Amino acid sequence: MANDATTPLKDVVNGALEFTIPIAHKMGVEALEVRPGYAANRVPIEGNGNHFGVMYAGVLFTVAEILGGGIAIATFDTAKYFPLVKDLQIFFRKPAKTDVTAVAELSDEEIARIAAEADEKGKADFELKATVTDADGVVVAETVGLYQLRTHGK
Hints:
Elements: H1 9-20, H2 22-27, E1 30-35, E2 38-43, H3 57-65, H4 67-75, E3 81-92, E4 100-105, H5 108-121, E5 123-134, E6 139-151
Antiparallel strand pairs: 1-2, 2-4, 3-6, 4-5, 5-6
């Protein structure tokens, strides 16, 4: 795991976000919950609108894409591994007119597979599906991302 037991993982992610992905921090992206195999982020509508009054597409992309980093921090030893995104598709379902929340998770079986493959080969690809909902629970976007967990030095 990425931190000591005294600091909540969401605080670790939120603290790192300002320095690792400054534009996401400026958008107001924040981790709501981060635990092994699970991450949830939120981003406000305020300051993130577009020319016709809904959330800008790039903000929706960002709030979902960075879930992979949160899950990796919570699930895998950051002294040994780091995550990267290789590909991400987004499917816009409805206009977002409120703050949105993005959620993704990995099963225990998938986590074990990823760690074993990364240990053996120095890297492991994994798919992460995210759902982005508005304040009323309406699905506004879905993503399918191809991420990779790599060992440091490989």
